Task: inverse folding
């Protein structure tokens, strides 16, 4: 406990120092504060993309789901997320090019300008904000749960709210430059922490082979599809593979990072390194979750997300346990700071439309405070621990944001797409999510987000075609 708190103090102090240095280096212009003046080289961009995407579910949700359903979790998460790097080239390269040419700062700005539609721009922004706030709050929830687990006395709600406050101040100091610099440190911490966790747990269980054999003997169902609870049906498997591929670039914090690249080399290096790191790093929490069965660790229903901390505390030295927990905090904070910044950028730049240099940055900082308050409200009344971190995100953020993908791809590559098609695509897609959620439409065993993606794509094509024909007739 004492060693953990000492590490946390050192870690938070380092973040504040980075924020202060970045504050002094950052010009008080929207471009420099919000997207670091488009100066991120390969290393900073890669770690920013990785650290931003390695969040609460990397340390808690992955292991918790693997504990319940088995090794199939690696297939849908490790491989599914790794192939998302293809979208760095398909979407990211084009976003970077247009951003540099036309000085875009936010995702909605690109979409709205492409179709010359403020309504579409605001709609796109609204969807991003509404469905990213739960994701932001979940990072704080994960940190709160972790603090509660290690301390034994602090409630997860208090820990979560305290984390939000810390992140709020840090983001206001450093902007995107501070976030990027911190992500390099936090990315290294996360990779090191997860590696140490799986190595020490494996050693204590007699090695990787022994740990796997004990888990297999205890629960062989976890080693084959459909896994525990027969969760990994073909529909679910297929849904997750597609979901990560199409939804990840729609996270505003990742979309915005494409603007920060110094050149195409930065994007190419990130595209190569990302799947390499993900393919091995995501295996580690899944293994630990499955090994818990062979080790005789029984997690109460609703507490499965804490299986990784439990295993590391039980089978690793106390100083390793403390470092791994701080590494987990780094995962939460590195995602949350980027989310706060990207959301504040959109609200100040797209909604308020100030475009007055220093004042826009000032208003962006005010929005950071307001968003933090919304995240606190979600923590207090919107998070259901019984669903787990992954369940919460799949039902909210992932399903809501994937609907934006057809519009984004159309804006980048399809000249015949129209603003009417895009607006209809987003609205109908989001309505379908609600209908699937309340069982008013059959999902046939697929994730609602994937069916909504298909519906949004079909609507975009049909309405774009019909509206373009009408425009031609009017002309």
Result:
């Amino acid at each position: 406990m004492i060693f953990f708190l000492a590490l946390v103090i050192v870690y938070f102090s380092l973040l504040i120092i980075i924020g202060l240095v970045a504050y002094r280096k950052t010009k008080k212009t929207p471009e420099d504060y919000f997207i670091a003046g488009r100066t991120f080289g390969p290393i900073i961009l890669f770690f920013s993309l990785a650290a931003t995407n390695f969040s609460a579910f990397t340390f808690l949700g992955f292991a918790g789901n693997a504990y319940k359903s088995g090794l199939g979790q690696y297939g849908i998460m490790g491989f599914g997320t790794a192939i998302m790097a293809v979208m760095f080239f398909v979407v990211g390269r084009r976003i970077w090019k247009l951003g540099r040419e036309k000085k875009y700062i936010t995702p909605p700005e690109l979409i709205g300008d492409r179709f010359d539609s403020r309504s579409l721009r605001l709609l796109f922004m609204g969807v991003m904000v509404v469905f990213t706030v739960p994701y932001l709050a979940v990072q704080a929830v994960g940190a709160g749960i972790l603090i509660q687990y290690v301390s034994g006395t602090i409630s997860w709600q208090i820990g979560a709210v305290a984390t939000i406050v810390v992140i709020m101040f840090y983001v206001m100091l450093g902007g995107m430059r501070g976030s990027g610099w911190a992500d390099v440190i936090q990315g290294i911490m996360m990779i090191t922490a997860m590696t140490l966790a799986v190595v020490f747990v494996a050693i204590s269980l007699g090695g990787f082979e022994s740990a796997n054999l004990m888990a297999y003997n205890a629960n062989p169902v976890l080693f084959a599809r459909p896994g525990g609870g027969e969760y990994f049906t073909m529909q679910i498997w297929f849904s997750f593979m597609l979901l990560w591929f199409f939804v990840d670039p729609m996270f505003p914090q990742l979309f915005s990072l494409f603007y920060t690249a110094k050149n195409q080399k930065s994007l190419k290096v990130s595209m190569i390194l990302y799947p390499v790191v993900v393919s091995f790093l995501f295996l580690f929490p899944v293994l630990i979750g499955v090994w818990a069965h062979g080790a005789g660790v029984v997690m109460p229903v609703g507490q499965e997300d804490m299986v990784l901390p439990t295993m590391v505390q039980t089978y690793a030295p106390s100083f390793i346990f403390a470092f791994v927990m701080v590494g987990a905090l780094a995962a939460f904070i590195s995602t949350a700071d980027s989310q706060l910044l990207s959301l504040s950028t959109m609200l100040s730049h797209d909604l308020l439309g100030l475009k007055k240099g220093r004042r826009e940055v000032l208003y962006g900082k005010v929005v950071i405070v307001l968003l933090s308050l919304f995240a606190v409200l979600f923590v207090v009344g919107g998070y259901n621990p019984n669903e787990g971190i992954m369940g919460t995100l799949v039902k909210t953020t992932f399903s809501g944001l994937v609907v934006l993908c057809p519009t984004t791809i159309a804006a980048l590559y399809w000249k015949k797409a129209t603003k009417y098609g895009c607006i209809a695509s987003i609205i109908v897609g989001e309505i379908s999510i609600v209908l699937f959620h309340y069982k008013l439409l059959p999902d046939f065993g697929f994730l609602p987000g994937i069916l909504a993606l298909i519906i949004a794509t079909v609507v975009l094509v049909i309405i774009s075609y019909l509206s373009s024909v009408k425009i031609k007739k009017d002309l």
